[in-house]
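So, can you check this record?

>
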Amino acid sequence: MHGMDKNILSNDDSKKLLDNVNLIIIPIYNVDGALNRNSYSRANQNGPKEYGFRGNAINLDLNRDFMKCDSRNTFFFHRVYHLFKPEIFVDTHISDGADYTYTMTLIATQHNKFHPVLAAYMDTVMLPFLYNGMDKKNNTMFPYVESVAEIPDSGIAGFLDIPRFSTGYTSLFNTISFVTETHMLKPYPAQVQATIDFCKRYWSSRTQCRTNKSGKTES
């Protein structure tokens, strides 16, 4: 996230977004895990040379702690989240799951968790804006899906972000929420660029994502 922070704060076009948007960034959420670096815990990950560990200092999986709040990390996340009450929340990840064609996949909160007006805005305005923007960057994005059984032939389903996950928790408070999952088998520079492209796109959504009189999304 540090590179993206620097990118938006040093670029004049990007800085204009801050005239209309309050941007809150947690650069490293699992500080303990980030400092517990190695090159071997995810043997198939394609870079960087060293990376952090999923567990924190007492080996809690912070990615599944948002409802039970066992860790101090999650406790302080709750305080920050409820202080600022964001309209949009994004949690950036690297996926260790199935082998996808695309570098970037996206988990969007299920629309039926929201009030119908908010759900319609996310489904018909914001998501097309995000997907179209990634296409324009030649960084096609695809929904994050899971197979119903062991192989995809059994069918696929969208990921259910229950409240123990970050977006499942934030959506309880009517925050449009996303998890980005860049593919661990893709080259690391491509993963970073896909994340930057997505973040810049959603940062701009507050000023550019709107509907015209015909009901079509302008992007």
